[in-house]
Every structure is written in C-alpha cells, then in structure tokens.
Design brief:
This is Phytanoyl-CoA dioxygenase. The protein is of the alpha+beta class. Helices cover 20% and strands 22% of the residues. The protein has a single domain, classed as Jelly Rolls. The two termini are 31 Å apart.
C-alpha cells in the first residue's frame, strides 16, 4: 500500500499522502456514522466526552468541530484502525509493533470550521522515543480552500517549540517567536479515501474552511509498541489492548529526543481548540485563506 519513494518522502519531509487507502464501502459507512453523530449533537448544548462544539452550535443548526475518541464510541473506527491496508503502511513507517495512541474526528463546516494554530503533536504527548505519527483519514476531498492540514517539511527533525502562554501549556506555538517561514508549508490534500501520515514532531496547523464544501478528517495517532508515554501508563491492560500489530512489550526504547512537558496544564481542558484559547499570538485567526 505504500511505495518506497513514499516512505522516503515521509523520512525526508515528515509527511506523506497515500491515495485510496480506505475502500469505498468503509468510506460510505464512515460518512454515514459521522452523520449520525452530528444528528445526535442536536441534543447537547455544551462540550461533552463525545462532542466538542463550534461557537453558534444549536439544535436547529448543529455545528460540531470534533468527535472525541471515536474508536471508543463506534466499532467502525476501531476496525479502520486495525484494517490490513493501514496496518501495512504503519509497519513500513514505524516498525513491526504498533499501538493506537488515540483518535478524533475534526470537522470543518462550509464557510466556517475553526482553525487549528501551528503546533507539534509531540508537545501534547512526549514518549520515550518519537517513532509516532498521526494519520489523517480523508472522509471528504481535502483542499486548501476547505481547510486541509498544512505541514512544514523537515520540522520533524528540528527542535520542540514552546507551546506555553503566560507559563501554562496552551497547545500552540507563538508564530512570531519561533522564527519559522510558514510560507513553506505544504497542504496535505487528496481525494476522499486517501490518508495523510505526519510525524509527531512535524509542525502543522489548518486554516478556516472558506469553501462551500465540508471537510471531515478522521485522525488517529499511532506509536511504535516500544514507545511509552512520559506521562505514565495508568492502565496497562488498556494500554496493551490498543496494539494493532506485533506484541506488547514492557521494555521501552529510549531515544535521545528533545522534550518539553505540557505542564503546567492548559487552563482550558477538553480539546486542542480549548487549549489554544489562551494563546497570546495567533497565525490563522481572522485569516480567510490558508496561505
């Protein structure tokens, strides 16, 4: 499912898009289930353990910006995480042993859709090694106009940037202080059914959806089986139950990787959107394009 040159591109740039990984039946079913979740959001008025809501959400006009840990709430998303096509790609990029770290579905409504400020996933969950990546399963065609994820190539081999504001973790980098050229960012675009793979240390973000088409992105985070979270493992059985390839191990592999802990915790918990509300300087706020 992944070519040698695509593996090389991932190693070089920290991101690659592989086309048509999700088959048509899985894609149709995933869209149906997401529609059911959105319909169910009409009954909620505030963020829950399942829903993170856009400003302006209402029963008459439901606006969901995130469905949290979907693999826990519907079997389909656990099945996709273990699908042979996806697992084969993960093993090519991470090695024989692979563990699911987490999942979410980010939704961007037409002419709306909250942006996500520049950040590194590594800032949220550092491990004993950085053989970790995120998979973006495109449930809609992803374009620059509808808020596709933007990634800065080669930043996965650079420093871990500060994601704090006023001394507290905020889940966002200061775009003025970090010294990066964001014009170099490349969009992870593709037709529905394709998947993006980006390294846990790659700097990325996304702008508001300025198109008339929705953008629904199912996201998984996967780690090598011997990468252990520095925050600890409170439930070993649950930790091991998320193995999708290979065998569990109690021997963490230690690598010389830069780390900044996400402490003290963000004043606003719940999702990256809430975390980033305390960021002092923003890149995507009030921007109408992804560039």
């Amino acid at each position: 499912m992944i070519k040698d040159e695509e593996v090389a591109a991932y190693r070089r740039d920290g991101v690659v898009v592989v086309e048509d990984v999700l088959d048509s039946a899985q894609l149709a079913e995933a869209r149906r289930v997401v529609a059911e979740f959105i319909e169910g959001s009409r009954a909620v008025t505030a963020h829950t353990d399942v829903y993170d809501l856009e400003p302006g959400h209402s029963a008459d006009a439901p606006r969901v910006r995130r469905i949290k840990t979907p693999h826990k709430h519907h079997k389909l998303f656990w099945d996709i995480a273990r699908s042979p096509r996806l697992v084969a790609i993960l093993q090519a990029l991470l090695g024989p042993g692979v563990r699911l770290h987490g999942s979410k579905i980010n939704l961007k409504s037409p002419q709306f859709g909250s942006p996500v400020e520049w950040h590194q996933d590594w800032a949220f969950y550092p491990h004993t090694n950085d053989d970790i990546l995120a998979v973006g399963v495109m449930l809609d065609d992803c374009t620059v106009e509808n808020g596709a994820m933007l990634v800065l190539p080669d930043t996965h081999r650079g420093p871990v940037y500060d994601h704090h504001s006023d001394g507290y973790f905020c889940g966002a980098m200061d775009p003025e202080a970090c010294g990066l050229d964001f014009s170099r960012a490349v969009p992870a675009i593709g037709r529905a059914g394709s998947m993006s793979f980006h390294h846990v240390r790659a700097v990325h973000g996304s702008a508001q959806n300025t198109s008339d088409k929705p953008r629904v992105l199912l996201l998984y985070e996967f780690a090598a089986a011997d990468a252990w979270p520095l925050s600890g493992v409170p439930d070993l059985a649950a930790f091991d139950s998320r193995i999708v390839a290979g065998e569990p191990t109690t021997r963490p592999r230690l690598a010389d990787v830069p780390v900044r802990l996400p402490l003290p915790p963000a004043p606003h918990q719940g999702s990256i959107y809430e975390n980033q509300t305390t960021a002092r300087s923003r890149y995507f706020a009030d921007r109408k394009t992804a560039a």
